[in-house]
Amino acid sequence: MSFASFPPEPSDWGASLRARMFDQRTVFLSGALSDQSAGQAAMELMTLDATGDSVVQLHVGCPNGDLGAAMGVMDVIDTMGVGVTGVAMGLVGGPAVGVLAACQRRVAMPNARFHLCEPEASFSGDATTVERWLEDRRRRWARYCERLGWALKMPAEALEAVLSGGPYLGAEEAIALGLVHEVARAKGEITALRPGYRNGD
User: In angstroms, rounded to a whole number, what is the distance separating the alpha carbons of residues 142 and 76?
Assistant: First the structure.
């Protein structure tokens, strides 16, 4: 008797779904953006880049996250040889906004929300160590704002002023800012963005 047709156990469902979507050249980045989740997404993106020529979809639904983790994924997207379509789902906030912005094509689900803000961070140690950590964080933040500003066609200084206000944006407001290019509306539109889509087609 074969059990191949039985659905996976609940504990395996997430991994099974992720594997099936990976076969369709789709990568998920959800929950708090951490070094672990960013590392997994980065490895999946690099694998898909090396094993095919069609566009990859990156579904982003991270309400907050670590700045370094976000920049690591952004670097991978910037160096990929295939196009990446970012799909915003749920709330995308903090450094995860930069991950979405690094994608060549950016689509928002109709009810997607965006929180533009500086990431929270804390560090402990002696005065010298804390000072060095703060200086490193300032440098990384400046690079992040420069990269995000380039995507939004906005000077880094102007972008920092926007981020300091911590605004929440809806999908249409994100289009006006240049963060996303379009809102998915038609039934099956996201599915239609799978392999075979090329920028400009």
Answer: 19
Which pTM was predicted? 0.83
Nearest of 149, 147, 175 to residue 161 by alpha carbon: 149
Q: Could you give all domains of the chain from N- to C-terminal order, each with its CATH number? A: 10-119+163-185 (3.90.226.10)
In this predicted model, what pLDDT tens digit does every residue of 116-128 receive, in sequence order?
A: 998 876 666 677 8
Q: In whole angstroms, give the CA distance from residue 16 to residue 172.
A: 34
Given a contact cutoff of 8 angstroms between Cβ atoms, the answer to whether 162 and 116 are in contact is: yes
Q: List the beta bridge partners of residue 105.
A: 85
In this model, does residue 198 exceed pLDDT 50? Answer: no
Q: What is the pLDDT of residues 102-149, one digit of tens each?
A: 999 999 999 999 999 988 766 666 778 878 878 888 999 999 999 999
